[in-house]
Design goal:
Elements (H helix, E strand, L loop, with lengths): L2 H20 L3 H7 L5 H8 L1 H17 L5 H20 L4 H15 L2 H11 L4 H26 L6 H17 L16 H5 L10 H30 L5 H48 L6 H9 L1 H19 L5 H30 L1 E2 L10 E2 L1 H22 L8
Antiparallel strand pairs: 1-2
Length: 403
C-alpha cells in the first residue's frame, strides 16, 4: 500500500467512525435518558438529511473554487467536534436540536469531500477507491462494536466519542495530500450547485419513476436508521449497537457479489431485489421478538447489505449509465439531493409521527415504563416499501446505457 493510499484509508476509517459513533444510538439515549418524544427523535435523526439539502453549497462553492480540500475538511471536523461535544452536555430538545443541526451542517459536506480528495489523489479511482472506501464501513463497525461492548448506548458517551474522534480527524486532515480547488475562478450558478442540469433526464419516464421511487423509498429507510436501536433495546437485546454492525458486515459481502447480479439479471431486477429486501426486513421486525423469534431480528439486520447495495449503489450505477457524460456529475448530485436530502428529511418526520402514534404510557414518570407497539410500527414501512416496489415493477423500464 502506498503512503498516499494509507493516508486516505485512515481518513476514511475515521470519517465513518465519527458518524457510526453517535447516529445509531442517539435515539435510545435521548428517549431513555431525557424522555424525548418519538417526533423529537425523528427530527434529530433528520438533521443529517436537512444538512444534505444545504451541503452542496459548501462542496461546490467553497471546496471546488476557493480553498484546498484538506484544509476545509480539517476546519469542518474541528468545528464539528466542538459542536457535538456541546450537544452532549444538553438535555432539552430546544438546545440539542439546533446544536446537532449545526454539527451535521459541518459533517455532511465532509462525506463528498472525503470522496473528492480520494479521487483526486488516485491514478485509477475505479480500481483503487473501493479498497479505500471499505475502510469507512469498517470504521462504522468498530464504532458500533465499541459502544455496544461497553454498554453505553443510553448515555452521552457516544456523542463524546464522536467529538473526540472528530477533533482527531480534523487534525489528521492537515496531513492529507494537498488538493487545491479545481474550479478556481470559474463562474457558478445555482443550477450547477444543485445538479439541476440533470432535470432534462426526467423526460425519460423510467428515469422519472426512478427519481420518484428513490425519494419515496427513503421514507421507510429512515425508520431503520432512526428507531432500530431503540427497538432492539426495548426487546432487551444485549449489545444492540454491536449487533447492528452485522448489517455493515453484510454490506461488504453483498457489495462483492453485486456485479454478478448486475451482469446476470440487470439493473431493474437487482433494484427490485433490494426493494423486496426492505419489505422483508420490516416484516421480520414486525413478527420477531427477543425470545424464540430473535432469529428474525438478526435476519432483518443482516438484510441491510442487500437493502442498501442493491437499491442505492445500483441506482448510482443506473444514473451513471443513463446520464450523458457532460451531466453525469450533475445527475449524481441531483439524486443525492432527492434521496439523502429531501427523502430522508421527510422520512425522519414521518417515522417520528408513526412511532409516537403507536407509543403508550408516554406521560409516565419513569422512562422505563414507555412501551412502543413495534409490530404496528414496523408494518407501516413494510407497506410503504411494498408500494414503491409495485411502482417500480410496473413502471420502471430502464433503457440501455448511454455511452
Amino acid at each position: 500500500m502506498t503512503p498516499v493510499r494509507l493516508k486516505l484509508s485512515i481518513m476514511m476509517f475515521l470519517q465513518y467512525f465519527v458518524w457510526g459513533a453517535w447516529w445509531v444510538t442517539v435515539g435510545t439515549y435521548l428517549t431513555q435518558v431525557h424522555n424525548f418524544t418519538p417526533v423529537q427523535v425523528g427530527l434529530i435523526s433528520g438533521t443529517t438529511a436537512l444538512a444534505a439539502l444545504i451541503s452542496p453549497f459548501f462542496v461546490c462553492m467553497i471546496a471546488d473554487r476557493f480553498f484546498a480540500t484538506e484544509k476545509i475538511l480539517a476546519a469542518l471536523h474541528l468545528l464539528g467536534g466542538g459542536l457535538i461535544y456541546l450537544a452532549s452536555t444538553f438535555s432539552t430538545f430546544a438546545l440539542v436540536y439546533p446544536t446537532l443541526l449545526a454539527y451535521t451542517l459541518c459533517y455532511v459536506p465532509t462525506l463528498p469531500l472525503s470522496n473528492a480528495i480520494s479521487f483526486h489523489n488516485m491514478k485509477d479511482p475505479a480500481k483503487e477507491f473501493p479498497a479505500v472506501r471499505v475502510l469507512g464501513t469498517i470504521g462504522w463497525i468498530v464504532a458500533g462494536q465499541l459502544i455496544g461492548w461497553f454498554g453505553v448506548e443510553a448515555s452521552a458517551v457516544p456523542l463524546k466519542l464522536a467529538a473526540v474522534s472528530s477533533t482527531l480527524l480534523g487534525l489528521y486532515c492537515l496531513a492529507l495530500p494537498h488538493t487545491p480547488p479545481k474550479l478556481k475562478g470559474q463562474p457558478v450558478s445555482v443550477g450547477n450547485i444543485l445538479g439541476l442540469d440533470a432535470l432534462k433526464l426526467m423526460k425519460d419516464v423510467s428515469f422519472a419513476v426512478f427519481v420518484v421511487g428513490s425519494f419515496l423509498i427513503c421514507v421507510p429507510l429512515t425508520f431503520y436508521y432512526a428507531f432500530t436501536n431503540l427497538f432492539l433495546n426495548d426487546l432487551n437485546m444485549a449489545n444492540a449497537a454491536g449487533k447492528m454492525t452485522l448489517g455493515q458486515m453484510s454490506e461488504i459481502g453483498f457489495m462483492l457479489v453485486m456485479p454478478f447480479f448486475l451482469s446476470r439479471v440487470g439493473v431493474k431486477k437487482t433494484i427490485l431485489l433490494g426493494m423486496t429486501a426492505w419489505v422483508t426486513r420490516y416484516l421480520l421486525f414486525a413478527y420477531g421478538d427477543g425470545d424464540t423469534k430473535i432469529w428474525m431480528l438478526y435476519a432483518g439486520i443482516l438484510l441491510h447489505g442487500i437493502c442498501y447495495d442493491f437499491f442505492f449503489v445500483t441506482g448510482q450505477i443506473y444514473v451513471d449509465q443513463r446520464a450523458p457524460v457532460e451531466i453525469r456529475a450533475a445527475a449524481q448530485g441531483f439524486i443525492a439531493f432527492v434521496t439523502l436530502g429531501a427523502g430522508m428529511f421527510l422520512g425522519s418526520w414521518v417515522a417520528g409521527l408513526v412511532v409516537q402514534k403507536y407509543t403508550i404510557d408516554w406521560t409516565s414518570a419513569s422512562p422505563l415504563a414507555v412501551r412502543h407497539l413495534w409490530p404496528q410500527i414496523w408494518m407501516v414501512p413494510a407497506l410503504a416499501a411494498a408500494g414503491v416496489l409495485a411502482l417500480f415493477a410496473v413502471l420502471f423500464r430502464p433503457k440501455e446505457a448511454t455511452s
